[in-house]
Structures are given as C-alpha cells and as structure tokens.
C-alpha cells in the first residue's frame, strides 16, 4: 500500500451519544479523502446509540460497530485500535465533528513527510454553533524532544483528538494512570510523542471541538482537581524512565504549573492539601513561570495571591 494513499482508521468511542451521532457520522461521510474506515465502539450505552450506529453501518460498509459493556473511554479506544486495519489512526470524540477536508489535509502532510509518526492539526473550539477560538500548532517538523518541550510548557495541546497517529506506535502497550478521568489523554499522548521520531504540523483547523456541559472535562469537584495533579505526577514519573528526562526538568516544572492552573478550575484545593504542598515545594520556580503562556502565569499568580489572603484571613480569625 503506497504511503501517499494510506488507509486511515477513525476511532469513535460512544457512550449515550444519541444526541450527537448524526453530526459526527455525517461529517465522516462527507470526507473528501475516501480511503478510510470508521470504528465506532458502543461503550455500554443505555440510550439509542447502538441502533443509530448500526443504521450508519448499513449505509456505508466502511463503518464498523463494536459493542461492549460499559468499560470507559480508555477501554473503548483500545478495542477500536485492535479492530483498526488502517496505517494511521484518528481519534474523534462522539460529540465533536470533522471538517470535510480533514483527512485530505492530514494525509497531504504525510505526502510531504512520509516518515512522520504524528501529524498534529489545528482545531476550532465551538459553543452553541459559534466558533469561540481557533488553535493552530504553528510547527512544520520537529523531533520528539523538541515537541515534548512545546507540549509540556503549554505551547501546543496534548489531547488525542485532532491528531493523526502511525498505528505502529500502539504496538507496545501504553501505561494508563489508574482512576484518573482528567489528564488521562495527556498521559497517553506524552508516551506516544516519546515513542515517535518525527512530528509534523498541519496548520489548518480540521476538527471542531464542541463544548459540552455534560462531558467530564466540564465537571467540577475536589476529586477531579486532585486527579488533575495526579496526572501530572504520572507524566513526571513516566518521563523519569526515558532518555529525555534530564533535558526536560525545567519544562516538567512548567507542566506542573499548568496542571495546577487546570486543577483550580475543577475545584478548590487548600494549601494544606498534600498534593498541592508537594507540587509547590518541588516544582514552583521563577524559571517555570517564564516558560508557560503569559496569561497562565498571571492566572496562577492571582490564584496564589488569593490563597495567601484566604489563609491569612483564617489565621486572623483564630
């Protein structure tokens, strides 16, 4: 099979997604690049998800439906990967959509860089039909170390969607953080980048990320805030085992700042929280503040100051 026309396997985990399926499935059927298959994994849905998927499978033989008991998005993706027959994999969330030229633009980058292991693309953030912002990777070609540095300091995203992966990256089992719902994608993506040799950019938005209030990423609780910090610790422990670790220490500190920033939007963790105390002691530094995006640094400083004021206020009361 010529690399200029590779088979792309689109993997869509689906759980109680009946409200969104027509949008994502129609966006797949409208792809201008035709050499694809779609693996839809029905993850124990108790709504009409399975019947809707089967209807689309009858409409186009390139669509396959696999049903399983509810095991979560990680297991659903693993099933999709095992079923996939493509040279490259594209992960899509069931409540998002692709632009019609998505696969064509991704494969076009492979025609320029046939040895690429990952193609990262731009995407739109959409809320109620309105594009709120557009994210562009702003890279041409990078090695794994250079790209890891960009990811860890927040210059590019670490979500699995909107990226094309060489399937052989998944030949060896990946390690998944246990009992973590927030940051799991980041933990997996870091491993995939570390296993890669070449990452190229598609500086055009090919994916519509739909903000959905029902998704885990929009929920708030102290538990989710702690899970965010645990994901950062998992990533650090993984990188310690790689050849990249000593070249990434400053960037890892910056990553902890970013994950701490994200955790504050999930729920309030007091200064006495053991995870917060550990991260502040080991990773907060002036250098790491300079590495992250300016607006993130300002946000963390404001939150940090607020925490200090609250702590001081409590001391005064007692």
The secondary structure category is alpha/beta
Report, as a whole number of angstroms, the end-to-end distance: 73 Å
- Count of discrete domains: 2
State the fourth-level CATH superfamily of the largest domain: Spore Coat Polysaccharide Biosynthesis Protein SpsA, Chain A
**Roughly what is the average pLDDT, rounded to an integer?**
89
CATH class of the largest domain: Alpha Beta
Strand content: 15-25%
The CATH architecture classification of the largest domain is Alpha-Beta Complex
Cα-based radius of gyration, to the nearest Å: 20 Å
Count of alpha and pi helical runs: 11
Low-confidence stretches: 308-318
Globally, the shape reads globular
Instruction: Name the assembly state.
Output: single chain
**What are the secondary-structure elements, in order, as H or E?**
EHEHEHEEHEEEHEHEHHHHH
* Sheet having the most strands: 10 strands, mixed
The count of strands amounts to 10
Domain Glycosyltransferase 2-like: 9-128
Organism: Parabacteroides goldsteinii CL02T12C30
InterPro entries: Glyco_trans_2-like (IPR001173), Nucleotide-diphossugar_trans (IPR029044)
Keywords: Membrane, Transmembrane, Transmembrane helix
């Amino acid at each position: 099979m010529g690399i200029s026309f590779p088979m792309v396997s689109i993997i869509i985990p689906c759980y109680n997604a009946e409200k969104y399926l027509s949008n994502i499935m129609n966006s797949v059927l409208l792809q201008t690049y035709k050499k694809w298959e779609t693996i839809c994994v029905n993850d124990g849905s108790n709504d009409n998800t399975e019947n809707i998927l089967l209807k689309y499978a009858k409409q186009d033989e390139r669509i396959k439906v696999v049903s399983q008991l509810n095991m979560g998005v990680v297991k659903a993706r693993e099933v999709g990967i095992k079923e996939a027959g493509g040279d490259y994999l594209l992960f899509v969330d069931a409540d998002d959509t692709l632009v019609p030229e998505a696969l064509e633009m991704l494969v076009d980058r492979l025609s320029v860089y046939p040895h690429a292991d990952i193609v990262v693309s731009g995407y739109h953030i959409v809320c109620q039909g309105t594009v709120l912002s557009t994210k562009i990777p702003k890279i041409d070609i990078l090695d794994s170390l250079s790209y890891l540095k960009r990811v860890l300091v927040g210059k590019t995203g670490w979500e699995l969607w909107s990226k094309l992966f060489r399937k052989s990256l998944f030949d060896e089992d990946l390690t998944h953080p246990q009992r973590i719902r927030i940051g799991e994608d980041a933990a997996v993506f870091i491993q995939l980048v570390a296993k890669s040799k070449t990452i190229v950019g598609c500086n055009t938005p090919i994916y519509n990320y739909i903000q959905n209030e029902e998704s885990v990423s929009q929920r708030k609780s102290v538990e989710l805030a702690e899970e965010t910090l645990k994901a950062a610790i998992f990533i650090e422990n993984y990188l310690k085992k790689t050849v990249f670790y000593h070249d990434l220490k400053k960037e890892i500190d910056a990553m902890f700042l970013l994950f701490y920033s994200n955790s504050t939007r999930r729920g309030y963790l007091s200064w006495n929280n053991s995870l917060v105390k550990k991260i502040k002691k080991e990773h907060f530094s002036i250098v790491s503040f300079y590495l992250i995006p300016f607006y993130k640094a300002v946000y963390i400083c404001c939150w940090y100051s607020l925490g200090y004021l609250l702590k001081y206020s409590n001391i005064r009361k007692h």
